[in-house]
Amino acid sequence: MKACVFTLGCKVNEVESQSLLRGLADMGYEVTDSLGYADVYILNSCAVTAEAERKSRQAVARMRKFNPQAPVLVCGCASRNHPQDFLGKEGVTVVTGTERKQRLLSLLGARGLYPDAGEREFCEMPPPQRSGTRAFLRIQDGCNNFCSYCIIPYLRGRTRSRAAEKIREEALASGAGEIVLTGIDISSYRDGGRDLGDLLTLLSSVPARIRLGSLEAGIVSEAFLEKMKAAGNCAQHFHLSLQSGSSAVLRKMNRHYTREEYLACCERIYRVFPDAAITTDVIVGFPTETEADFLQSLSIVREAGFAHVHVFPYSPREGTAAARLPDLPAEVKRSRAARLMQAAAEAERGYLTRFLGREAEVLFEEEGGYTSNYIRAYAAGAREGAFCRVRLTALQNDGMKAEILEELSYGNLHLL
Question: Per CATH, is 359-412 categorized as 2.30.42.10?
Answer without folding.
Answer: no
